[in-house]
Amino acid sequence: MCLGIPGELIEMATDDTDLALVSVAGVRRRVNVGLLTEDDELAVGDWVLIHVGFALAKIDEAEAQAALEMLHGLGPAYDQELADFTGSAVGREGL
Amino acid sequence: MRFVDEFRDADTARALATRIAALCEPGRRYAFMEVCGGHTHTIYKHGLEDHLPESIRLVHGPGCPVCVLPMGRVDDAVAIAEQPDVIMTAFGDMMRVPGGRGSFFDAKAAGADIRMVYSPLDALKIARNTPDKHVVFMAIGFETTAPSTAMTVLRAAREGIENFSVFCNHVTIIPAIKAILDSPDLRLDGFLGPGHVSTVIGCRPYEFIARRHGQPLVVAGFEPLDILQAVHQLMRQRREGRCEVENQYSRVVPWQGNRRALEVIGEVMELRPWFEWRGLGFISQSAMQVRDAYAAFDAERRFAVPGVRVADPKACQCGEVLKGVLEPWECKVFGTACTPETPIGTCMVSSEGACAAYYNFGRFSRSRVRAGSAGPTPLADPVVLR
Ligand code: SF4
């Protein structure tokens, strides 16, 4: 739960500014980006750190890759987090 | 572009270790507390203590939200879950946390409708799709998850969803650190500040630690090199006689934190007069509750909960572990009666709990030998890059 997972922004929603489609390790899900501010100037291709379905911070790509690697190294804990993320009912429909 | 190796490079790690060693004053011992369970995980997993001079000890702190939840609150949540037409939803981490009357898993086996969710938004979705049931979200976590709960409540209010509420157990990190600083049991030389909590609260709230308690704090990332670098910064401050808040993790943590996240928390939640922490006891203004304006979404007001305080099992020494007074393996039931499969205490439940992290990764660490509780240490090499 406390693990932040990095995701890459694939598409911003047009009807609901709080929503965006991200890809996490190849899994596409909808996340809420409403906690980021205008200063973050989100754009497709940016990376964000996701906690329980919400983007909490914008990060750069190197940081994202490092975080991903570290998460992989966690083994079961990461698998669980990713499985939870994948199983999340919220974002299955795309945007 | 920078590469992952930049955060892992063995040569850099060795160079850092040498510089850290050079800063140690002969004959002096140092203890730094890592507040966050994520750091504990990295430290054990990469055997970082083995790269530090003998005189530096890393002490685990209370920064695992599952670990600090008291038994009574688990019982309260189970009591809510047992009400007719209630669906209780919770993060996976929560399912095995033992209460006085068992865990969520036990209650589920006994017939309660308890479902694991990844996000509070999943819980809201269940509410939307099941209008004839009331859906409760078991909200736990520090400032990293509190904004998500708050945003979900705002969304529920906006959409006019009436069959959704949260059982709010959000805790705040600063009062816990204060409690540790006021505890007479422990002598510390500084703190590794939590990475992800700080993305929300920023670095300012830690300044009292430096100013009033004369302890340096360095907010640190989760890579092995991040932690070594943060220890280096702490040692440099000690050596130069400075006590400041520094941000080693500035590539993710802005000094000001996340303004929007703080606003959202403040809109929906307010501080409780006090809250019980497992192992630390009652700490004033250390947790959040739902504001009156959103009372309709507060499970505590919608359901009568027993609210009974339950003492921890006698064998359990989680309190000492959470305060950094005991190392996990010093608990009498560690690895025997208490394992991740059959946890007695909470520190064994979450993967970020010190006991679980030590159980999974740390058993060959030098620190165990240091404590004189084990024989030869089969040191895996190259540890940092394991
Ligand atoms: S071994 Fe179990 S009971 Fe002992 S401190 Fe750790 S979690 Fe608590």
Automatic annotation (TrEMBL), chain A:
InterPro entries: Hydrogenase_HupF/HypC (IPR001109). It comes from the Bacteria. Pfam families: HupF_HypC. Coiled coil: none annotated. One of its GO terms (biological process) is protein maturation. One of its GO terms (molecular function) is carbon dioxide binding. PANTHER family: HYDROGENASE MATURATION FACTOR HYBG. Belongs to the HupF/HypC family. This is Hydrogenase expression/formation protein HypC.
UniProtKB/TrEMBL annotation, chain B:
GO terms for molecular function: 4 iron, 4 sulfur cluster binding; carbon monoxide binding; iron ion binding. InterPro entries: Hyd_form_HypD, HypD_1, HypD_2_sf. Keywords: Iron, Metal-binding. GO terms for biological process: protein maturation. Pfam families: HypD. NCBIfam families: hypD. Belongs to the HypD family. PANTHER family: HYDROGENASE MATURATION FACTOR HYPD, HYDROGENASE PROTEIN ASSEMBLY PROTEIN HYPD. This is Hydrogenase expression/formation protein HypD. The lineage of its organism: Bacteria, Bacillati, Actinomycetota, Actinomycetes, Pseudonocardiales.
